[in-house]
Amino acid sequence: MSLEEIFAAAGVRGFLHARRLGSADAIGVDADAPVVLASVVKVPLALEFARQVTAGQLDPTDRVRASAADRLGGTGSAGFADDAEYSLRDAALLALSVSDNTAADLLFDRVGVENVRSLLAELGLTRTSVLGPPRELLRTIIEDTGAGRPLRALDPLRTSSTTPREMTTLLSAMWHDPGPGAQVLAWMAAQVSWHRLAAGFPPEVAVAGKTGTMPGIRNEIGVATYPDGDAYAIAVFTVGGAETLRRPDIDRAIGDAARAAVDQLRS
């Protein structure tokens, strides 16, 4: 089954790019099309945080407090019933491991949205845009829902967006970086969501990934490392299936397409 057929069988449009790290080998499906970042935005956020820590601009042990005003609902401290306090580096871990939106908001406050944008520009990711932290995304959803108009948050031309190729470029830069990049990949390896990219690979393949989910949008980017040492950067984005957030068939298609792409590169 081709990559396009895998996506079609799940009733979605798929966008994919995969590259063998350390080489020019790559494969893609609409790899340069604009796609919605959703929670994948937490990867460049965490990378900029780790870079600022390395530069001595931030102390990773500094504390932040997630109060009622900060809680957006969802996983991690975003869904807590009570106030919580944790370090900046634990905020980064929460943002990547359980996609904690409140932790990401608090981290954005310290790191700075403009600094994340500068990082993307430095890496040459000219088609990746970050409009703001999760709370800004929620604000646009509330406004658009109240006005009865299409959600900006689901339109890659009006929200934080990227392309699959640019996300594997980001992952490649992180993989080649033994400092901040390696730290972010370690946080991504702690992600508790194994139902997309990781589900497509056998247990002996290590997968460090970050998902993104919104109505009709399911994404994941990550690095798959085989026992022989070969590593692959993969970015998969899908559009479709908006009727429910729980669509294990689409999740599985993301993993199947990722594995099929890597199999082609390995052959």
From TrEMBL:
The lineage of its organism: Bacteria, Bacillati, Actinomycetota, Actinomycetes, Pseudonocardiales. Pfam families: Beta-lactamase2 (PF13354). Residues 17-238 form the Beta-lactamase class A catalytic domain. This is Serine hydrolase. InterPro entries: Beta-lactam/transpept-like (IPR012338), Beta-lactam_cat (IPR045155), Beta-lactam_class-A (IPR000871). PANTHER family: BETA-LACTAMASE, BETA-LACTAMASE-TYPE TRANSPEPTIDASE FOLD CONTAINING PROTEIN. Keywords: Hydrolase. GO terms for molecular function: hydrolase activity.
